[in-house]
Write a structure and sequence with these properties.
- The complex is a heterotetramer, with two copies of chain A (405 residues) and two copies of chain C (154 residues).
- Chain A has 405 residues and is an alpha/beta fold.
- Chain A has two domains: 3-30 and 295-404, Aspartate Aminotransferase, domain 1, CATH 3.90.1150.10; 38-292, Type I PLP-dependent aspartate aminotransferase-like (Major domain) (Aspartate Aminotransferase, domain 2, 3-Layer(aba) Sandwich).
- Helices cover 41% and strands 16% of the residues of chain A.
- Chain A has 16 helices and 17 strands.
- Chain A has helices at residues 3-7, 35-48, 58-77, 92-102, 104-107, 126-135, 152-158, 181-190, 202-205, 210-213, 238-241, 278-294, 296-315, 342-351, 364-369, 386-404; strands at residues 16-17, 20-21, 23-24, 86-89, 113-117, 138-142, 163-169, 195-198, 217-221, 232-236, 256-257, 262-263, 320-322, 332-337, 354-355, 357-359, 375-379.
- In chain A, strands 4-10-9-8-7-5-6 form a seven-stranded mixed beta sheet, with helices on both faces.
- In chain A, a hairpin with a 4-residue loop joins strand 11 and strand 12.
- Chain C is an alpha+beta fold.
- Chain C has one domain (3-19, 27-145): Sufe protein. Chain: A.
- In chain C, strand 2 (40-48) and strand 3 form a beta hairpin.
- In chain C, helix 4 runs antiparallel to helix 6 (129-144).
- Classes of the chains: A alpha/beta (405), C alpha+beta (154).
- The interface between A and B is large, with 91 and 90 residues.
- Bound molecules: pyridoxal-5'-phosphate (2 copies).
- One pyridoxal-5'-phosphate (PLP) sits between chains A (28, 91-93, 121, 123-124, 169, 173, 198, 200-201, 221, 232, 362) and B (250-251, 274-275).
- One pyridoxal-5'-phosphate sits between chains A (28, 91-93, 121, 123-124, 169, 173, 198, 200-201, 221, 232, 362) and B (250-251, 274-275).
Chain lengths: 405, 405, 154, 154
Amino acid sequence: MEIKSIKSQFPIFKNKINGKPLIYLDNANSSQKPKSVIERISKFYSKEFSNIGRSVHSLAVTATNRFEDTRDLVKKYINAKSREEIIFTKNATEAINLVASSYGENFIKKGDEILITELEHHANYVPWHFLRQKKGAVIKFAECNEKGEVDIDEIKKLISNKTKIIAITHLSNVTGAIMPIKKIVDMASKKKIPVLVDGCQGAPHLKLNMQELGCDFYAISCHKMYGPTGVGILYAKKKWVDILPPYQGGGGMIEEVKKDNITYPQSPTKYEAGTLQTAEVVGFSESIKFIEDIGIKKIMEHEKEILEYGLDEIKKNNSVRVIGDPKNRGSIISFTIKGIHPHDIATILDEDGVAIRAGHHCCQILHEKMGIAASARASLGIYNSKDDIDALSSAIKKCNKVFNS
Amino acid sequence: MEIKSIKSQFPIFKNKINGKPLIYLDNANSSQKPKSVIERISKFYSKEFSNIGRSVHSLAVTATNRFEDTRDLVKKYINAKSREEIIFTKNATEAINLVASSYGENFIKKGDEILITELEHHANYVPWHFLRQKKGAVIKFAECNEKGEVDIDEIKKLISNKTKIIAITHLSNVTGAIMPIKKIVDMASKKKIPVLVDGCQGAPHLKLNMQELGCDFYAISCHKMYGPTGVGILYAKKKWVDILPPYQGGGGMIEEVKKDNITYPQSPTKYEAGTLQTAEVVGFSESIKFIEDIGIKKIMEHEKEILEYGLDEIKKNNSVRVIGDPKNRGSIISFTIKGIHPHDIATILDEDGVAIRAGHHCCQILHEKMGIAASARASLGIYNSKDDIDALSSAIKKCNKVFNS
Amino acid sequence: MDIKELYQDIILDHGKNPRNKNKCKDFNKDAKGHNPLCGDKVHVYIKLDKEKKVEDISFEGEGCAISMASASIMTEIVKGKEFNVAKKILEHFLNMLKEGSKLSINSLTDDENTRMMSLSGVKQFPMRVKCATLAWHTFMHAVEGNRNTVKTEK
Amino acid sequence: MDIKELYQDIILDHGKNPRNKNKCKDFNKDAKGHNPLCGDKVHVYIKLDKEKKVEDISFEGEGCAISMASASIMTEIVKGKEFNVAKKILEHFLNMLKEGSKLSINSLTDDENTRMMSLSGVKQFPMRVKCATLAWHTFMHAVEGNRNTVKTEK
Ligand SMILES: Cc1ncc(COP(=O)(O)O)c(C=O)c1O
Ligand SMILES: Cc1ncc(COP(=O)(O)O)c(C=O)c1O
């Protein structure tokens, strides 16, 4: 694939970081935005802006159509069954909070069990913790093995007749492990347990097919998919949006408002309170088009090639320890360097324009399990090349030099 | 004031609507964006973008600083006491939901009373309705008089020792009534009742001074302040953010995460879960600068002049009935035309490029009170001029013609 | 686009003087429709015979000129017709609003076709399509015995 | 900006071989500090005499080179000093990190001033300022008897 031409679609790479070209390897945190997305937002504000859904003047009609067109695009892209299954949220975090609240408060009671894993991002633990506190539910953590993956048997083992939901990541943002979601859903659905998938890392890097995957809920952050900040997506199966109550209350999500009662319309309207992220959603349509223009299969192949090259290169350095060795790995290389704290690594790399992340990556449980407080993480996007990996490797060597001189 | 030069800062006015210049009178719904805001967002994505607060590389540092600079700007603009009092949300609706949840679920119990008014937008009723359903609380509606305002005595009358919060609009989005918030706060604080102000319409049109106003919570939607979509602000007094629990759970809002417990940092971090609306918040800094460059006092004077001219002009048409006649009115003219449904009005006006809103404006309670299902609403922004009012008047005359021919 | 294409005289007439606006006697089917955006509300009453022929039909409600005219015309058109025929007419009608196709339905008289076509201007005003179809959908609901209120989403 | 300005030899030395890294005997004050961003953690132990002089001081913890070096240097600097003097030193130190002002504190020897100044490179790395100040703030907390963990916000 012609990475150069893809990279040239991203204005940010025209800038220098500390006098060096930007090597952006912090994609699991947030991805950069192609020109088409940035310009779509500008154009929307400059030529088409209006609040949507509420007014009948021409601007409002156009804006509403652009917004709803994006919903159709998303529906198609993730192969959902109907538009009602696509709910726009602020981010993936809000999507999971929505489920924990609307599903949790109605279907989970004292003593019921919520099954998550040790791999989960705080976004897929804290909302369940709230529920634990409110309802007296129990959270069970499926164990992560030394390869940095959760074996399906570990999940199976913890299922009981009190299990009310399984909430699990699609692709670990620390070890890169890709979870066998379809198998887990098959197993869970036999016991009628709904499955929520934290798709934050899955969505930008894997082919999405909700009808095939079969999960009940899937949470997406658009800003990790080359899209604008401020918008996320909750996919929720029709059978759930038909019965779950609304989450936030306000304008737009009501049907009839009386002093003693309020009724609500159907999904997605029911779940989209107040003025929405109009420009962001419209802008996101260009992200999907960008991905589709390249093709997710090509993206997956390319990222796999760079990932494997990266793992090979980085392991050549004896002081580096790569975290996890999952059978099925995507887009993520977390590591530590002997004697150098991850934050020092990140600072030294930054001097060479190499942007990575250091810390616990919102996965304290996993880091504790691995006996470390923090790690360094290089995470890939479509614009990364072997050159970027080479820059990473030599910057890592520089860390060794600084600290051992 | 030189309105022409202000209007020229808004790219949208270069477009034609149905071949006519755009006369935008739907500002209470959402305002248009000046070039500086649109360009700030583009620049941020093109040169500075990164996720904030989490990484130590240079882009992340810059982005974080720009984001937090905006918080400082907001703090200063609304004269809050400290940065902890400024929480970024998705919109004003979320800000009110946050309070209804974090305050409501902890301080309001069965039989307690929530005092709102008949003027309230659904955003300031539905979240309390949720609480009513969950907790068995009672909602009391202070009556609106035929002038379209709520007399402070009506509020006083309803206060009891079970009143746990007063939630009230600053400026009605239907009648334009400006409520005497300071007096209400003074009255409430004597009885130790916190006051939440729905500042959606107040923020763009009135001088804001939280320390003088004295309210406990103030909700703002940035998109009505010439700012980006996808971002709102909750001002919450220090004494509340110190004790209220978080609202949504996820990354960024935690301190220490263990399998059996989670601790949280202080506000605002505690209330800002997940990846924030980075570009939107940074873009909003330009909205505040835009407003400050003109000066809110000048804006108020200008809008008052146009409002009075508009009321005079529109009342000259005998078939028009203006809704409400509040003593203290801001930026809003809602009306009906005899024999013509508001939606038909909006459609006919649109043909002349005049954008207004028709419907219940998310105030069904108020419309029911006034015995109408819907109204037409012209709402002002800084760029509106007497010419716009003249265009509105003649478009209204056209409605008469179409329907009486 | 001329506003008079939307507000044709037939529509203004039906909007101001809706036909069959009452609760017809002996109705055996009814349903409510609601368009939250405009606040349009209709309640359709039908007397359906055993062969599913619409013996009588009427409506109550309030709303914009388009929705009231559409309801009024709808009652005129389907009265005396078999449900299956009415269903076909609705299909043609929806097609006209969506595709802008000309309407010429065999089962209708020229005059009836003209009345139906008076709503064709709505196509240029996408936000108003729901106003034009509300009464029709509510009619379908009533016949099919669905007790939920018809809701047109925003 | 050169990375070696941040990671000066003194810092690397203190980072690798931190001084006073233990739980000192007979401490009568202690406090914990936490920097959620890096995961830096320190626990400072102080033996304070009645005149508020720091008779002994030590720390435990883990974190980046900057935070460990800063803690190590801090314990060396304040040991034996009055609390008020230590407080002044901290002021100068914070000023150096913020304003980039040169450091030359009367109450310190040349060598001590040099050690403190080895942290001056942090000014160029705003995200790392909290690493450099964590131990100092925790020291203040301990003496002032505040039992809450010191938290540096993200
Ligand atoms: C008075 C009032 N309150 C609340 C809102 C809700 O604001 P938002 O939709 O931006 O959350 C609005 C605007 O729609 C409003 O006018
Ligand atoms: C696996 C995973 N889940 C959830 C999140 C949270 O996403 P957001 O912050 O956009 O809500 C992230 C990213 O931070 C993630 O990597």
